[in-house]
């Protein structure tokens, strides 16, 4: 991947994935890894979105769930629109997707990453309780939430604009590569910008969010009157913030390293940082499905509904529609399935029932009693 940096630029970096790599192992392994992460993460985020949308339709929404659904949407966009570009780039080792994708791919990915970080910071002001809604119609979501989400989207698209301005196609031998080149005349201003950008969009929000939820979890466990539900939701948000901060650290580190004009980091570190960005988007739904009670119960309900639809040919098993707890629905169905064969087993065949009834109603005469000594002992 060695390529000479022009003399009139302050930094020179590949866009859309590392290009001009040597070796067939990287060309084969990296696309497979990225596609596997993309597929598994997309399925998980789609399930989380379906569960949260179903909760809002059933009037069980909350302010936190609005932000969690936005996070799942951003993760889905990163996995479906950004990861395939990197997979193709690693496979082709050159740029084949045109100038528009070259200019916008890093800008769009960083916009989504910045929006995720800021959204998690804003969840510190959201309520965990259910949003009151009228008897009919959609749930009543506070106006400030829509404004906050819109503001975060606009800000997150404005910060990475330099990555769109400096990206361009460069001919290399008979192929074309996509690189980011910053002119030397803008080096002073952009050096200051690339110190402010990671600090404002990553370091400060992550530290603030983790510190807030750590303190909130301590307060909920030790001082809240009913800490169970609140502490669980706080723990989920703390784990999401910690995972995001830890898994995005290599990406922000290599990004700042290159932009500030230091020696180019190792290629393995750059590839690892890019993989961790998509792994972070795939790991978020795992945290929600395993730790967040509402999402876990919704996943049980979806599985139960799917299994019921698949067992329509079995008339003995009836699937009941219930809007309550998914775990309770599953437990009741299992109890009904176990109790039904037991009740069928208790039924007595008519002939046998008639035989035993006749035996119970038969009066044994004294002279026909086969064991008269037992009757004599009882009389004594």
Automatic annotation (TrEMBL):
Name assigned to this protein: G-protein coupled receptors family 1 profile domain-containing protein
Taxonomy, superkingdom: Eukaryota
InterPro entries with a match to the protein in the record: GPCR_Rhodpsn, GPCR_Rhodpsn_7TM
GO cellular component: plasma membrane
Listed transmembrane segments: 29-54, 66-88, 144-171, 192-213, 233-255, 267-292
Record keyword Cytoplasm present: no
Molecular function terms from GO: G protein-coupled receptor activity
Keyword Transmembrane helix among UniProt keywords: yes
Topological relation to the membrane, as annotated: Multi-pass membrane protein
Pfam families assigned to the protein according to its UniProt record, in alphabetical order: 7tm_1
Cellular location(s): Membrane
Keywords, comma-separated and alphabetical: G-protein coupled receptor, Membrane, Receptor, Transducer, Transmembrane, Transmembrane helix
Signal peptide: none
Main localization category: membrane
Domain (G-protein coupled receptors family 1 profile): residue spans on this chain: 44-288
């Amino acid at each position: 991947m060695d390529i000479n940096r022009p003399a009139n630029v302050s930094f020179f970096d590949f866009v859309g994935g590392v290009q001009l790599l040597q070796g067939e192992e990287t060309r084969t392994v990296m696309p497979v890894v990225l596609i596997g992460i993309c597929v598994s993460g997309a399925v998980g985020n789609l399930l989380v979105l379906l569960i949260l949308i179903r909760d809002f339709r059933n009037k069980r929404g909350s302010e936190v769930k609005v932000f969690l659904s936005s996070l799942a949407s951003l993760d889905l966009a990163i996995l479906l629109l950004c990861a395939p570009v990197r997979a193709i780039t690693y496979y082709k080792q050159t740029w084949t997707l045109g100038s528009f994708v070259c200019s916008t791919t890093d800008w769009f990915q960083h916009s989504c990453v910045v929006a995720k970080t800021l959204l998690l910071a804003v969840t510190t002001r959201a309520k965990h309780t259910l949003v009151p809604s009228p008897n009919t119609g959609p749930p009543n979501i506070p106006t400030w939430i829509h404004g906050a989400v819109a503001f975060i989207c606009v800000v997150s698209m404005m910060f990475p604009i330099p990555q769109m301005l400096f990206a361009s196609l460069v001919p290399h031998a008979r192929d074309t590569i996509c690189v980011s080149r910053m002119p030397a005349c803008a080096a002073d201003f952009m050096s200051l910008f690339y110190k402010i950008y990671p600090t404002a969009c990553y370091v400060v929000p992550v530290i603030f969010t983790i510190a807030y939820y750590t303190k909130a979890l301590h307060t909920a466990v030790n001082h809240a009157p009913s800490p169970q539900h609140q502490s669980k939701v706080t723990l989920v948000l703390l784990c999401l913030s910690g995972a995001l901060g830890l898994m995005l650290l290599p990406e922000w580190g290599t990004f700042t390293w290159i932009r500030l004009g230091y020696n180019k980091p190792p290629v393995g570190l750059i590839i690892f940082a890019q993989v961790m960005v998509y792994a972070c988007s795939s790991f978020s739904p795992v945290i929600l499905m395993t730790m967040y009670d509402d999402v876990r119960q919704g996943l049980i309900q979806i599985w139960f509904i799917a299994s019921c639809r698949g067992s329509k040919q079995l008339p003995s098993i009836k699937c009941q529609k219930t809007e309550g707890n998914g775990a309770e629905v599953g437990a009741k169905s299992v109890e009904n399935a176990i109790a039904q064969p037991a009740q069928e087993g208790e039924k007595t065949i008519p002939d046998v029932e008639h035989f035993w009834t006749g035996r119970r109603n038969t009066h044994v005469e004294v002279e026909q009693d086969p064991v008269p000594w037992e009757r004599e002992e009882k009389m004594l």
